[in-house]
Design brief:
The complex is a heterodimer of chains A (466) and B (286).
Chain A: H1 2-26, H2 30-66, E1 73-79, H3 85-98, E2 102-108, H4 115-124, E3 131-134, H5 137-143, H6 154-158, E4 168-169, E5 172-173, E6 176-177, E7 181-188, H7 189-195, H8 205-217, H9 219-222, E8 226-228, H10 235-247, H11 255-260, H12 269-281, H13 292-300, E9 305-311, H14 315-321, H15 323-328, E10 330-333, E11 345-348, E12 352-355, H16 361-376, H17 378-386, H18 405-415, E13 419-420, H19 431-444, H20 450-464
Parallel strand pairs in A: 1-2, 1-3, 8-9, 11-13
Antiparallel strand pairs in A: 3-12, 4-5, 6-12, 7-9, 7-10, 7-11
Chain B: H1 6-34, H2 50-55, H3 59-90, H4 97-105, H5 112-134, H6 146-175, H7 178-186, H8 191-202, H9 204-219, H10 223-228, H11 240-249, H12 254-282
Classes of the chains: A alpha/beta (466), B mainly alpha (286).
């Protein structure tokens, strides 16, 4: 294709030069002719440069991917988890050393970036990745034509029961889980100790409220600004995570039930309101503009608040500020759902790996092998626990090796069966953050009543699922 | 004027090609997508004017359009007032002229996203601390209500763009011939009269340019909006560009977002053309 471009270009230059010559000579402006010709030549060369520039790029990428000459297979991974980027790249290097015929390119887009948008533009650009991330049923529905069946892979076989529900379509497993994550009320052990509160006694809403009130009355002595820090600005904390705790029970803790649900009832809406009010009332104000970094880094890590609603992923941020505190000073309390479970925390799979079935056959096979190796080989398992610091979503792991206290606590909750499912991936697209989260902001600003919040969001759920 | 022969078009070709590839083609494709159910991955069917009808009933979109209009009117007035005032200051015979020009222009060299975060810090932290020192409740909790969010954005934009607009006014002010002003002075015109009847009509072209720039910039504002308020609280400070972006990339209603973008384009183009037309009529030829 590029050769054709180049040949076309030469013709183009020739034609243009002749045309220019004739034009000028007809007018008898022989003197300026040379100048014109020089200018034209330069411009034609410029255009040639642009076109061949594209061409030479294509040449090199062709050599990279086709690779039938030396049997080299390239796996392009496009993933979103920024937190473990370095460790992941290191593991990929190790894998390349063990498997000389495989080359792994990793691109990470995440954190503040919008992974979904980046993935779409990546596919639109024609450079489709061979391994990428999908979040849940909606992603599966959107990408189903571009997802390979992973049912027969080792990783899918080892995945814990129930973790594959969200990515199974017509009996085909289209993704394998990253890890497990959980969230709840993360509390400061030192402050609790100082206040003389035993965290193990907090097992329901009444005991939580009592503890909060006690902490609030001793604010000055404990040296804290408030009991909670409720980040109303982060609509994912309120609209996805908090809401999930109270909506998951009505969807039987199953993401697919939520995904198929034509309506939402807010069956535990009162319990939801109570917890939201409790957090808001005893929080650093104004909650509506409080963001993640203020909540986790500025207030909680510096021990200015006693409790925040967050998940095990904040361990790294806290450790970056105060390692000693991160390792010995934090734990997770349940989020009580009155009338349902009051001693549980929501645990689920944040993301799945999917393999692009548009890729060449060898690449698909190599991608599957890589994922199997990562999650089921001895070396892979070790990395997953020690380097990635993941809570494994697969069987056959030695959980006692989990090093950070939050992940360990989440794993223990999961072991005791004190969990609520993650169903927010089954909400209508954008509903959790752009509808519910925004309505909650309105409620926190006292611009809407709780009934208005419930009715508005109920209606938009139904409109979305018509 | 030169006859438009083949060489004329030939020299125009690279520019036209670039324009076609990066402006015209996306526009055409975008308009096409707005009539389909495109989800960012593939097009399944043609839906006609469905999205266009829908968006006139879309409260979020109408709200953001209204907010953007309010914001633009206030910012355009403030930016041009400040810009012209600064320009008048730095064209007088001050020793610090050059350095002042640089200082006033500098905010414009900082990227919008970073500026947003810097001002977020000023509004939420510095304002609050200052407020608690002087005991003012009004300086607490900035950006947590729609009003403070609005004024926060206006202050940020005025601070950033005034210097830029100043440069435009300066270039026109320096082009006003000294003789005219002097003649007016001899005729007994006072400072205000000299400015209003002599200088002001002569810098009218500067208004055309400045109003156009401020208008298009404030209407299309995205990055400052994103980093300063993020549309919050409860989407009350969400401008059109951001609303469109969210429709496209957090709700994945790509085709619908595209329809909004087309309407937005038409509105901005119409207002800008009208403004340039009206301003041009007022300009004085020397």
């Amino acid at each position: 294709m590029c050769k054709r471009f180049r040949i076309l270009n030469y013709f183009f230059i020739l034609i243009m030069q002749t045309l220019a010559n004739e034009n000028l000579s007809q007018r008898g402006r022989e003197k300026v002719k040379n100048k014109w010709r020089a200018g034209l030549l330069a411009m034609s060369l410029g255009i040639t440069g642009i076109l061949t520039g594209c061409g030479s790029n294509e040449d090199s990428s062709n050599e990279g991917t086709s690779g039938s000459k030396n049997k080299q297979v390239t796996i392009d991974v496009f993933q979103f988890k920024v937190e473990f980027k370095d460790q992941f790249e290191k593991v990929a290097k190790d894998y390349e050393n063990e498997h000389k015929d495989v080359k792994i390119n990793i691109t990470t887009v995440g954190g503040g970036e919008d992974y979904g948008a980046a993935l779409r533009s990546k596919f639109a650009s024609g450079k489709e990745p061979s391994i990428y991330n999908i979040g849940g049923p909606q992603d599966v529905a959107d990408w189903q034509d571009k997802l390979a069946d992973l049912s027969d892979s080792g990783a899918a076989g080892a995945a814990l029961e129930g973790t594959l529900d969200g990515v199974t379509l017509d009996g085909k497993v289209l993704g394998v889980p990253y890890n497990q994550e959980g969230y709840g009320f993360i509390y400061n052990k030192n402050i609790f100790k100082k206040a003389g509160i035993d965290p193990t006694t907090i097992t329901d809403y009444a005991s939580l409220e009592k503890a909060v009130k006690e902490l609030d009355s001793k604010k000055k002595e404990l040296g804290i600004q408030s009991v909670f820090a409720l980040p109303g600005k982060e609509t994912w904390v309120t609209g996805l995570h908090l809401s999930n705790t109270f909506l998951a029970p009505e969807f039987d803790n199953n993401v697919l039930t939520a995904y198929d649900a034509k309506k939402v009832d807010f069956k535990y809406g009162d319990a939801f309101k109570k917890i939201l009010d409790l957090q808001n009332q005893y929080s650093v104000q104004p909650t509506v503009s409080l963001d993640y970094s203020k909540q986790v880094e500025e207030l909680f890590s510096l021990q200015k608040v006693a409790i925040i609603q967050q998940g095990n992923w904040i361990y790294g941020s806290i450790a970056g500020i105060d390692e000693e505190f991160a390792n010995n000073g934090i734990g997770i309390l349940p989020i009580p759902v009155e009338g349902y479970k009051e001693d549980s925390i929501p645990v689920g799979i944040p993301m799945y790996w999917g393999v692009n079935n548009n890729a060449e056959k060898e690449v698909i096979e190599a991608s599957k092998e890589f994922l199997d190796w990562l999650y089921t080989s001895e070396k892979g398992k070790e990395t997953v626990i020690n380097d990635f610091k993941f809570i494994p979503a697969y069987s056959g792991y030695d959980a006692s090796k989990i090093s950070d206290p939050l992940s360990k606590a989440v794993y223990e909750y999961a072991n005791e069966g004190k969990t609520i499912g993650w169903t927010f991936m089954g909400y209508p697209t954008g509903w959790g953050q752009d509808e519910l989260g925004v309505q909650i902001q309105k409620y926190l600003s006292k611009k809407a009543s709780w009934d208005e919040v419930v009715n508005t969001t109920k209606k938009s759920w139904e409109d979305n699922r018509k | 004027m030169r006859k438009k022969d083949l060489t004329y078009w030939f020299f125009l070709f690279p520019a036209l090609l670039a324009l076609a590839v990066v402006v015209v083609a996306p526009l055409v494709v975008g308009v096409y997508y707005s009539f389909t159910d495109w989800n960012g991955i593939q097009v399944k069917e043609y839906v006609g004017f469905k999205h266009y009808i829908e968006l006139f009933h879309d409260k979020e979109f109408i709200n953001s359009l209204w907010f953007t209009t309010k914001f633009s009117i206030v910012s355009i007035i403030l930016i041009n007032t400040f810009g012209l005032s600064l320009a008048l200051i730095v064209t007088t015979k001050l020793k610090t002229n050059k350095i002042l020009r640089t200082i006033f222009f500098m905010p414009n060299l900082i990227g919008g996203l970073i500026l947003g975060f810097i001002w977020q810090f000023i509004f939420t932290k510095a304002f609050a601390s200052f407020g608690s020192i002087i005991g003012s409740e009004k300086l607490q909790g900035w950006l947590s209500t729609p009003e403070t969010g609005f004024w926060g954005l206006v202050i940020l934009m005025s601070w950033q763009m005034s210097g830029y607009i100043m440069v435009i006014y300066v270039s026109y002010l320096e082009g006003v011939s000294k003789e005219l002003v002097e003649a007016a002075e001899i005729d007994g015109a006072n400072v205000f009269q000299r400015f209003w009847y002599v200088v002001f009509p002569l810098v009218a072209p500067a208004f055309t340019v400045s109003l156009f720039l401020t208008l298009s910039n404030t209407f299309k504002l995205y990055d400052q909006n994103l980093s300063l308020t993020g549309g919050g609280p409860y989407n009350s400070t969400q401008m059109v560009a951001m609303e469109i972006f969210n429709t496209a990339f957090s709700q994945y209603n790509m085709a619908y977002a595209q329809a909004k973008a087309v309407i937005f384009f038409i509105i901005v183009a119409a207002i800008a053309l009208l403004q340039v037309y009206l301003n041009k009529k007022r300009e004085v030829e020397m």
